[in-house]
Write a structure and sequence with these properties.
The chain is of the alpha+beta class. It is built from two helices and four strands; from the N terminus they run βαββαβ.
């Protein structure tokens, strides 16, 4: 299975760090002043990074489906 990770738009990202602070697994970090998925195996697809980004620089191309 190929994992589909959040997509980070380096043009929109201003390096505020909100996504880094809010990532529960530490998968996101600032690299050269921009957000990056530095630990892709740790991403749990919670989409918190997308929600927290004030510049909409992160998009999650997957749908979170909650089971019963």
């Amino acid at each position: 299975m190929i994992a589909v990770l959040p997509i980070l738009d380096g043009e929109r990202c201003q390096g505020c760090g909100d996504c880094v602070a809010g990532c529960p697994t530490g998968a996101v970090a600032l690299v050269e002043g921009r957000a990056a998925i530095v630990h892709p195996d740790d991403c749990n697809y919670c989409a918190d990074c997308e929600t927290l980004c004030p510049r909409q620089a992160i998009s999650c191309p997957f749908e979170i489906v909650l089971g019963d």
